[in-house]
Amino acid sequence: MKCLFISAQQSLSLSPKLICNPHVTSPSPPLFSSASFLQPIKSPAICAFGSKPRSYFVRALHTMQNPEAISYLTQSQAAEIDEILMGPLGFSVDQLMELAGLSVATSIAEIYKPSEYNRVLTICGPGNNGGDGLVAARHLHHFGYKPFICYPKRTAKPLYTGLVTQLESLSVPFISVEDLPLDLSKDFDIVVDAMFGFSFHGAPRPPFYNLIQKLICINQYDQTCQKSSVVVSIDIPSGWQVEGDGGPEGIKPDMLVSLTAPKLCAKNFCGPHHFLGGRFVPPSIADKFKLRLPPYPGSSMCVRIGKPPQVEISALRENYISPEFLEEQVEADPFDQFRQWFDDVVAAGLREPNAMALSTACKDGKPSSRMVLLKGFDKNGFVWYTNYESRKAQELFENPHASLLFYWDGLNRQVRVEGSVQKVSEEESNQYFHSRPRGSQIGAIVSKQSTIVSGRHVLYDQYKELEEKFSDGSLIPKPKNWGGYRLKPEMFEFWQGQKSRLHDRLRYSPREINGQRVWKIERLAP
Q: pLDDT per residue over 415-445, tens digit each?
């Protein structure tokens, strides 16, 4: 698994996002060939990641895990940054509001899945913080949640009336203060506090004072072990002082999503999840205010601040929601069914869809597993490449049988394939070897896989030596001890996750009928 980080210089962004969870304790026509299965990914982001020194990532990890290493803004600094963004830097209010709302929605989705936390009440104030809440509610609707809006003091400006119109077009209900239940936890799984931002002064007045009291009551319900809604505050928990806190009687949100950078009051946030949201602050602002913010992973709109909360491993579970996987709907040939599912994974954009767990066993039956990459498959079997002197190669020599497992989390699917294994031809291995990037070819020569090395420097030194040797672009010879294996399937099992652990499992096993090989399909108990 690769993880991309964009540096804070490249993209400091909206505010942090906090998330707190009180319920957590302290393939058919032509199949792939090994030569053309997957082309190397050429991405500037990946190249940038690889070019960063190790010290950069150490600092990034330290910044994410240590809240004291993060910059916190005063009220005046936050206001000045907004003025610069919407002045000389050319941002509009609606641009910043859209990015802020999207950051909040993605923060919520990262922790609170719609299958368990579906009903979301967003309480919006009359200012920009309320606008952020309206945008977040729209995105949450598209993410599969069921949002509700309480917007007691509507703003007549076109930007806000437009956001209301957008929500009404999606049939998102608007609820008056009078129609809210006394106990919000009875009707809502999440309550988003979007009442007041960093520019608010003074004490909250009705109806917002009463709404804040409702959120405080949610904290009290939680302390009495009753089921309660989770509270998500945008940038500033309403009622808190920007440079202080809400006092012992204030809102205690389960999630805080800071925007642009955390405000000073965020130092007093005690919930389990604090996130920074959005990514639009340019280097000029980062330099002017000496901002130290964590880098955002990949294309994410949010990044965690501080260490994730301790979790009870036995309580971790996912309630899968998937379409039924029925015998009458599947392909008669398991290779065609695999191709269909593999195409689905590629279309869904999941990372490394060809990653698979390869399990082997020595002659004594002791098993071992490792992740490898599928490099081709057809009706003859599944192909991967490795060093013929590695541990897995030794085990395959002693016991030429193996199991492959593909796990595609994003689609709630896995496929298990068992069968006998043999080496591919030297010609096929050569063809694939020379289709690889030259760096990977050199790496295959350098790595005496599974042997002990005295340090990473040994690998680097040998790599540099060979890189220089072949710098003229001459052909890099394939090592004799490197090549491919092909697993010839004797059993397929396709697994689709379902609710309440009533998963679908369909097994394909070969049969001889009238001298022809056919596949029998059987359903297995989950």
A: 999 999 999 999 999 999 999 999 999 999 9
- Determine the 3-state secondary structure of 7 from DSSP: coil
Instruction: DSSP letter for 265, please.
Output: G
Q: How far, rounded to the nearest angstrom, does the alpha carbon of residue 488 sit from its chain's CA centroid?
A: 34
d(C-alpha 106, C-alpha 520), whole Å: 44
d(CA 321, CA 412): 8
CB atoms within 10 A of CB 274: 26
Taking only the tens place, the pLDDT of each residue in 200-235 is 877 788 999 999 999 998 866 555 446 689 999 999
**Cα(187)–Cα(210) distance, integer angstroms:** 18
Q: Name, in order, each residue with C-beta under 8 angstroms of 29's C-beta and a sequence gap of 6 or more.
A: none
Distance CA 301, CA 280 (A): 10
Cβ-proximal residues to 381 (8 Å cutoff; 6+ apart), any chain: 419, 486, 487, 488, 489
Question: Whole-model pTM?
Answer: 0.63
The CA-based diameter of the chain, rounded to the nearest angstrom, is: 87
Q: d(Cα 18, Cα 439) in Å, to the nearest integer? A: 41
List the chain residues with pLDDT less than 70.
Answer: 1-68, 219-227
Distance in angstroms (rounded) separating the CA atoms of residues 131 and 146? 18
What was the pLDDT predicted at 67? 59
The DSSP secondary-structure symbol of 405 reads: E
Strands 230-234 and 190-194: parallel
* Structure token digits, residue 14: 């909206």
- Position 316 scores a pLDDT of 81
The CA distances from residue 272 to 20, 218, 244, 284, 356, in Å, are 5, 16, 19, 32, 34
Nearest 5°: the CA angle 385, 389, 395 is: 85
What pLDDT, on a 0 to 100 scale, did the predictor assign at position 309?
74
* pLDDT for the residue 249: 76
Closest by alpha carbon to 218, among 181, 244, 245, 177?
181
Asked if 78 and 242 touch (Cβ cutoff 8 Å), the reply is yes
Dig out the tokens for 151 from the structure.
């917007």
- Which one of 154, 351, 370, 501 is the catalytic residue? 501
Per-residue pLDDT, 226: 60
3-state secondary structure 194-214: ECCCCCCCCCCCCCHHHHHHH
* pLDDT the model gives residue 18: 34
Which pLDDT does position 222 carry in this prediction?
Answer: 52
Burial bucket for residue 481 (CB in 10 Å: 0-12, 13-18, 19+): middle
Instruction: Name the pairing type of β-strands 119-124 and 146-150.
Output: parallel
Q: What is the spatial distance between Cα 362 and Cα 364, in angstroms, rounded to a whole number?
A: 5
Q: Is 286 within 8 Å of 311 (Cβ atoms)?
A: no
HSE-CB of 331 using CA atoms within 13 angstroms: 15
DSSP designation for 395: H
Active site residue 391: no
In this structure, are residues 521 and 507 in contact, taking their beta carbons and an 8 Å threshold? yes
CA 174 to CA 148: how far, in whole Å? 6
Alpha helices in 11-92 (DSSP H): 44-51, 54-65, 75-85
